[in-house]
Amino acid sequence: MMLGGAAALSRPRKITANRAAGLLHVEWADGHNSRYSLEWLRAHCPCATCREERIKASTDPLRLFTGALPSAELIGAEGVGNYAIRLDWADGHNTGIYPYSALRRSCPCVACNPNGPPPILAD
Ligand SMILES: [Zn+2]
Ligand SMILES: [Zn+2]
Question: What are the contacts of 77-81 at 24+ separation with CB within 8 A?
């Protein structure tokens, strides 16, 4: 839980999806801009199913994908309360809820994360 001035860091002012560029653009209340690649967001989907898949994949390097690759085509987005956004993907997957505070921590810009964005921590 963020308190006081820190709250502006994880409050979006505007969220726009640029499907052609494959980006989700978040303008935060403090004026910072974050541009997330849709592929990255899908690869880091914080839902229980995807997290489980990633754990399996990381513990078994020889594991092969048997199904279709997850879609990174965004067809919709919806605010959840005032703390998160739920993303709706073209393959029907829509259980990933991305908390704004976690998105802000994982901002891909070099000022926030010079060594690349950390994975989204949903808990
Ligand atoms: Zn998922
Ligand atoms: Zn940033």
Answer: 77/15, 77/17, 77/24
